[in-house]
Design goal:
Number of domains: 2
Strand content: 5-15%
Number of helices: 18
Radius of gyration: 27 Å
Order of helices and strands: HHHEHHEHHHHHHEEHHHEHEEEEHHH
Number of strands: 9
Low-confidence stretches: none
Shape: elongated
Structural class: alpha/beta
Helix content: 40-55%
């Protein structure tokens, strides 16, 4: 686009009118340039057009949008990055601009408005205008960025990438391509739109986690909404590359207090999407661990959103004690002995509430389980659920044996794998139930069916 909004433009309505006028005369300008129509030529020509032409809203439609017989012409208006107008508080006449677009491109028949935006609220605000368009049967279509569903097609864009690498970019064709060329650097982009004060940290983290799991974009800080994709039903989706970068910013802001360590643990799990080796199973393990960690984080805000029967009901009313990592134990029995000796599953500061912990064994040869959810009650015996989700080249030793040293074992390796291996004594959810566990963002970005490709 050679007509970006310039710094000296202050009137949103005039900015739109000038560009509609420019679109009408652009072909004549091309002819005047005698075939020499590079991007800089057009930018210069548009600048001259702005200086020479005046646009008056009162007579604009008559001059530009009617035919010789003064009849309304059919036309489609395309606006790239409408957010530059509607979300720019330095511009005046934004409401007048909205009314013009309604009068000329939403109310009349044979007119159509198509726009792109980098800010999800722009689309939502515009959709809210439709009920005010009287005598119109207008509907709307909200399109998300094109998503890759075929790995061969995806590798036509970036040959060296695996399925998990594309998942790191939410399987977005454009984002994957741009990141592969270093045209977009997620951490830098997040840093550029992050300016957090201590008083904002808890609300910022809560908004991120809620949006990841529940798809609610309005709870995300306005400065971060530019990072979201949005589905047709208005559900927000975080590309994991941006989610990882945002949580890294929050981890740095929290330091070692409050939620800093938990944020860092989730970051390390999401990083597996980018770095996992082909068919290693690490990517799926990272996605599951990150999703469960975020569900447990919501306990700190007094919220509990059940994930079907894939997490203990005892979590309701608990507080989150944090992520516990242990690298020495090689099986569950050794793990509980080690954690008891080190007193790492103790309520904080003599807490009077039940505490929930996410326990992640880090020994490379750890048997049978990939992670655990542990509830330590104020009184009574702890409740332990173990999860098997490693989808590697071969079945881990002992993986299909009945769950041992836990109260429940959950098999998160998919229906097909369960049918083939016939694990005994495990909870085996349907693949759709695992999508519920992952939440809105991760089920879109990194479903198991894609990571298996």
């Amino acid at each position: 686009d050679a007509t970006p909004l310039s710094g000296d433009e202050q009137n949103a309505l005039e900015a739109v009118l000038l560009r509609i006028g420019w679109a009408a005369v652009r072909d004549e300008v091309r002819k005047g340039l005698k075939g020499r129509f590079a991007r800089n030529d057009e930018k210069e020509a548009f600048a001259q057009f702005r200086e020479q032409r005046q646009v008056e809203p009162e007579c604009f439609s008559k001059e530009w949008l009617l035919d010789e017989r003064m009849q309304r012409q059919s036309c489609v208006l395309l606006i790239d990055e409408l957010n530059q107008l509607m979300n720019n508080e330095s511009l005046t006449h934004r409401q007048e601009c909205v009314e013009f677009l309604k009068d000329e491109f939403l109310r009349p028949a044979n007119r159509l408005l198509i726009f792109s935006t980098h800010v999800v609220s722009t689309a939502a605000d515009f959709i809210s205008l439709l009920p005010g368009v009287e005598d119109s049967q207008r509907g709307y279509e909200l399109k998300r960025l094109p998503v890759l569903n075929d790995l061969r097609e995806a590798q036509g864009l970036v040959p060296a990438w695996t399925a998990s690498s594309f998942s790191w970019c939410a399987r977005s064709a454009a984002l994957s391509y741009e990141i592969s060329r270093n045209a977009i650097r997620p951490k830098q982009k997040v840093k550029d739109c992050s300016d957090l004060q201590d008083k904002d940290l808890r609300d910022a983290l809560s908004g991120v986690v809620r949006s990841v799991l529940l798809g609610e974009w309005r709870v995300v800080l306005p400065r971060w909404r530019v990072l979201l994709d949005i589905l047709k039903d208005g559900t927000a989706v975080w590309p994991p590359c941006y989610l990882e970068a945002v949580l890294e910013v929050l981890a740095g802001a929290f330091h070692e207090r409050d939620f800093g360590p938990s944020c860092r643990s989730i970051v390390s799990e999401l990083t597996k999407l980018e770095q996992a080796k082909l068919k290693s199973g690490d990517a799926w393990e990272g996605v599951v661990t990150a999703a469960i960690a975020m569900r447990l984080l919501l306990l700190e805000w007094g919220e509990w959103h059940p994930a079907g029967e894939l997490l203990p009901a005892d979590l309701f009313g608990s507080r989150f004690g944090g992520v516990v990592e242990e690298a020495t134990a090689m099986n569950a029995a050794e793990l509980w002995e080690t954690l008891d000796e080190k007193k790492r599953l103790q309520p904080k500061g003599g807490a009077t509430e039940d505490m929930a912990f996410l326990v992640v064994p880090r020994h490379a040869q750890f048997k049978q389980y990939d992670l655990f959810v542990v509830i330590v009650p104020v009184q009574g015996k702890k409740v332990v659920w173990g999860f098997q989700c490693k989808e590697g080249r071969r079945n881990p030793d002992g993986a299909t044996a009945p769950p041992a040293d836990v109260d429940e074992g959950v098999w998160l390796r998919g229906e097909a794998t369960a049918a083939a291996l016939k694990p005994q004594g495990w909870r085996v959810p349907r693949d759709a139930a695992m999508d519920v566990l992952l939440g809105e963002s991760l089920k879109e970005a990194a479903p198991l069916r894609w990571l298996r490709l």
